[in-house]
Amino acid sequence: MENEQRGRRRESMMRRALRRAWRDWMRVGGRRQGVEASSRTPNPEPRIPLQGMTLIEIMVVIAIIGLIMGAVAFLVIPRFQQSKEKVAGILVQKVYNAAAEYYTIAPPGGGCPTLDDLTRENLIKREQTKDPWGKEMQISCEGDVVSEVRSSGKDGSMGNDDDISYSESQEEGR
Q: How confident is the model at residue 25 (pLDDT cuts 50, 70, 90)?
């Protein structure tokens, strides 16, 4: 008798499970096209499409962004160095012109002007006395004439090929 009751219970549980599965299948769109669902199985909640992105999609986007940033860096960094050299050339020329102008306002026989003299007389600003790499420029004179203004360049030491200078001969060539 107990076996019969267990068998009936299993059978009714199986029927209920099948009914639930059939209802769920019909609700999510398991119907054939053109065939309407019966009035017994209404579709109270429309199916909402899944939203969001997968991990692989996010990784692909990050990889593409990385490639773009690498290409930009490859193209921009050399231009940045070139622009620093151009700025240094302009600053050296400006210091040369300020040092040459200093002799018009300084007393005769005052010697070679220093960067402090030029800033004190408001011929240049304090930040214009340093090159783009943070080193101070050097002024060379022959007697009471400015012969050359020099920046140490990107390596920071004077007397190398990367030094940037402006002299009297370049002034005459303009």
A: confident
Bridge partners, residue 146, by sequence: 141
Kindly provide the b/e burial profile for residues 7-21, where b requires at least 16 CB atoms within 10 angstroms of the residue's own CB.
eeeeeeeeeeeeeee
Query: Per CATH, which fold does 86-172 belong to?
Result: Glycoprotein, Type 4 Pilin (3.30.700)
State if pTM tops 0.85. Answer: no
Distance of CA 38 to the CA centre of its chain: 60
Tally Cβ neighbours within 10 Å of residue 152: 21
Alpha helices by DSSP H, the chain: 2-27, 55-105, 115-120, 168-172
Is residue 166 within 8 Å of residue 148, measured between CB atoms?
Answer: yes
User: In angstroms, rounded to a whole number, what is the distance separating the alpha carbons of residues 17 and 41?
Assistant: 16
Structure tokens at 173: 């060539």
